[in-house]
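Re-run with default settings, no changes from the original entry. Doing this only to confirm the output is reproducible before filing.
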Amino acid sequence: MTDELYRGFSGYLSQTFGCRVHKITVDAGLGCPNRDGTIARGGCLYCNARGSGTGAAREGLSVSRQIERSRLFLSRRYGARKFLAYFQSFTNTHAPVALLRSLWEEALSCEGVAGLSVGTRPDCVPEPVLALMEELARKTHFWAEYGLQSACNETLARINRGHDAACFADAVARTRGRGIRICGHVILGLPGETREHMMKTADFIAGLGLDGVKLHLLYVVKGTGMEALYRQGEYRPLDREEYVSLVADFLERLPPATVIQRLTGDPHPEELVAPSWALGGKARTLALIREELSRRGSFQGRHFRG
């Protein structure tokens, strides 16, 4: 637990590896089935052409070069000794298995890399991909990160997600028992959602018994459908106080053992349209979440009924 309030990721990694561990974001240059026509076109309502990536693949940087560049920086600045290679941008299982093996094994061959974290969609993990994940999970610390975003099917349709909540539950069931750690991604503040919708998602996640969870604030970024809604006055982002309260509510419903990989993040400054408080405010937001839990006399799992 972080100050006994929630089970933070950095503490979990330190306990697991016995040293300071950092994630290194890797851009593999892969696409998304929700953009290329495999499932749909246009992508999710909140996602732009960069797909939350760094753009390093478009710059011609190999997986190894991306890792080496970040490894040196993180080692010097934070004293990190081991690293997880995090394949983040777009859908990192949307490729032939032979290519995925090549990319993931290249990352594992880099100095200091002690594991992998692969971000993907629950509708993009066929059996051959799961078999490869299982094979590597026998040799290394392996996380599969599946984007759910919401457990409300009406919301998923509204944001053009391309799958429903049952698809996510099915992916979790097919992944479980293979030695693969499972993390679910959730976005708070999606259009049309109330606190009740978001707490439904918390209870859904809690019932699946995931190893980890990431919570994200919905950013309005340039070049997205969300930007159009915002400009037309049809969407209001959460303010910081609302977000902090919702995160605390969410944490109270999760199992105490669930690793909280993220509670908020940092948007790309050149892309952010709203809310402005999210820019450079990560440390303050995390502090406010801890303060809110303390004010309530609460903690992760307080209202979990397993």
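The mean pLDDT is 95. The beta strands are 21-26, 82-87, 113-120, 141-149, 181-188, 212-217, 220-221, 259-262, 272-274.
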